[in-house]
Fold this protein.
Amino acid sequence: LEIVLNVRQFTVTGTIEWYLDVFNAAGLTLTSVTGYENTEKDATFDSDSGPTIRGTETHPDAWQFSQELRLAGETANFDWLAGFYYFEYQIDGNQRRLSAAGFRDPVFFDLETDSWALFANGEYRFNDQWRLNAGIRYTQEDKVYALNNTDFGLVFDETTVGDAAKQDDDNISFNVRVSWDVTEDHLLYAGVSRGFKAGTFNVGFTPINFDAIPVDPERLTSYEIGFKSAFAEDTLRVSGAGFYYDYKDSQAFQFDGATLSATTFNRDAEVWGGELEVNYSPIEGLDFLVIGSYLDATLKDVELPGPLFGGGLIVDTEMPLAPKWTWTGLARYQWDAPWGGSLAIQGDVTYKSSHFFDAFNSPSHFEDGYAFGNARLSWLSEDEQWEFSVWAENITDEEYRTYAFDLSFLGFATDVFAKPRWVGGTITYKFGG
């Protein structure tokens, strides 16, 4: 099997700003941001790294255009902006599988997207201590999809399923946040926001039920409270937050090892947790950083696939790639080098508790908790243009997976492991001075 990756991409972005002085309103700025991108890709790869020939060939072509116009202004106690956004995107192509018997017939796909939005946001300062930030956005997004799986004779488009091959989504999103500067060194805040992710469609190599091909929009309501504080003349900085996320029809990803179908599906979800960050700089050049988080992420009413996993049982599962505990500690010291410039030495350690790689929480997708550390020694020139460094990643050579695919019906699973101990050096030069 010849591994191929050929990507051709053209991107152009333009930004124009006008500073206006009309209606006796100083500080008005009109901004236009225009973007265009075209991408073509040809790829062939070993799709499972298994003991037999099993590959994938894909040829997507895509282009997109976007235009944003926004008007911003400010007064003594009020900053605001309002605008319009337009986005057009089209992707089409084909993909096919390779087995010991050779390439199978291809799967053709075509997706067209048109989206536009109106938005506004403002921050009002009641006084030196209290601020209110609020925003609102209306989004309209339309999609038209066509799928022709010639391998299995499955056609999903407007001629076979009518309006089921279309997505017509509109949504009103918002955010409201109140901030209180208790003192110059202590801030409290609380906020609520609602987000939106438009619906989409599934494409795969194996046939799935027509009603599983469309994916509904995802809506998230988020609640957050937090604080930021500084102590000991700003040498000690502490911040923390607690949050609760309420997902309606979250777009969860699943890979069914019994049918080799990779699909997105809708399920409600709840996520809550907290974060704490402590940054301490006792002397000049010496910094300590500790970041910790707790996460409880539940995906509701997940139907387990096939007899290998429980055969249709409906259960709540842990969301994939969501460890309950994550901790990172970092220490860095920088000092003047005798020959000029500055030297710095840095070490960090990260710990992640156990978690799953899939929405089904299958046993082969369970990863025990692990920790790994990195170290770095560097020299930076006085003009900050040159930097030389040596580094070591995963110093203890910890063995852990970053992802996995359960292929139980074939008698094995595919595991993706993180890099082992990795030692190297880097030379960096920044142009422009």
The chain is about 0% helix and 70% strand.
